[in-house]
């Protein structure tokens, strides 16, 4: 049923189903970008880029999300029991933190890996 407000620009509704993990990912990415989920999805569908200027709210949201991941990690007795959902969430949060920091330098581990791979066998 169309919206009774004739001035409304968007009168058509689109709906699709996502898994719980996909929903968490969309919510986290939209919050980190500081836009609504609809704006985030439309930007991605239209293959447009948007610049995120992180503010205090973004940092708090990421900190809270990382705290929840930390609590889940504390409950694990063995890292082999870590599920794919948690791994994907950790990778996403790490990417977001690195993106916000804007630090393009390699970590110590990455530098060591590069040194080892560049070594020649004699």
What does this 3D model show about the protein?
- The structure is a single chain.
- The chain has 122 residues and is an all-alpha fold.
- The chain has one domain (20-118).
- Helices cover 59% and strands 0% of the residues.
- It has five helices and no strands.
- The longest helix is centred in the middle third of the chain and has 20 residues, at 56-75.
- The chain is extended and about 70 Å long.
- The model has no long low-confidence stretch (mean pLDDT 81).
Q: Can you describe this structure in just a few lines?
A:
The protein contains five helices and no strands. It has helices spanning 20-33, 37-45, 56-75, 84-101, 108-118. α1 crosses α2 (37-45), α1 packs antiparallel against α3 (56-75) and α3 runs antiparallel to α4.
């Amino acid at each position: 049923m169309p919206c009774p407000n004739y001035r409304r620009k968007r009168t058509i509704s689109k709906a699709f189903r996502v898994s719980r993990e996909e929903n968490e990912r969309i919510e986290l990415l939209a919050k980190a970008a500081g836009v609504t989920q609809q704006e985030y999805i439309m930007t991605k569908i239209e293959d447009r880029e948007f610049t995120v200027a992180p503010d205090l709210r973004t940092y708090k949201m990421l900190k809270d999300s990382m705290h929840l991941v930390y609590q889940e990690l504390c409950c694990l007795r063995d890292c082999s029991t870590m599920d794919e959902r948690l791994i994907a969430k950790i990778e996403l949060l790490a990417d977001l933190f690195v993106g916000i920091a804007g630090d393009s330098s390699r970590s110590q581990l990455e530098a060591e890996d590069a040194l080892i791979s560049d070594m020649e066998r004699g």
